[in-house]
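Morning - 1,3-dihydroxyacetonephosphate inputs below, output right after.
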Amino acid sequence: MYKMKKVYIGTNWKMTKTYQEGAVYCNELLKISQRLSSDIQLFVIPSYTMLSSIKEILKESTIQLGAQNMHWEEKGAYTGEISPTMLSEIGIDLVELGHSERRQYYNENDEDINKKVLAALNYEMNPLICIGENMNQKENNISVETLAAQLKVCLKNVSEEDLANIRIAYEPVWAIGENGIPASADYVNEIHNEIRSILTTLYGSKGKNIPLLYGGSVNLENFLEYLQLDNVDGLFIGRSAWDMTSFKEILSSIDNLLTEEVNS
Ligand code: 13P
């Protein structure tokens, strides 16, 4: 049985769309979103080049706009980086931090991510912190320890007051992308329960309300199963949301589920 609360559904476009494609997508999403339950909190995370133009498209809507990364410093000699001041100036709502591709290809670590989390909070943007174990850690049965260490460091010095602005995405590295193996709903259930318990150990009852999203090969076959798990508050989707036909199908099924719940 589905539980009534806000569900967070969003997509990370990675490096896949041009501005032209992104604009067509967002205009379509805007139309679809007007027919959806207000309990669905949508978000899109495009590439930097189109953030201000997409902000214009989404400005009258409740769809949140995110950036895929951010430096923690306000300004300075950091060629190629984008600061929290720059993102907040264009009204960015959310910053994705610590995605496994950033950790894997650009050597980001939990300490860096922690500095970015604190900077995002300082600028009133929601950090969407990505955590996940790799296949080696899973096979060595240290998934939970890995996630606990990631959470502890990424959330260092985050106050209880700021918790309401934190979002966490559990994305097992082995489940992400073209070569990803979709996780079983049982595994996602087990790990999300563990993450919840790590958060309550860190923050007491306040740790119960932090939205926990699941991501990694979410597709038309598995999204409903994941979403109906107790500690899954939303989905963070790549490939299956890049194509509007499939994202639309996902969104209308979630909307039906929420509507059935209201009427039951
Ligand atoms: P896929 O859904 O394509 O596996 O990507 C998930 C992801 O990386 C979201 O950040």
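Note: The mean pLDDT is 96.

O.
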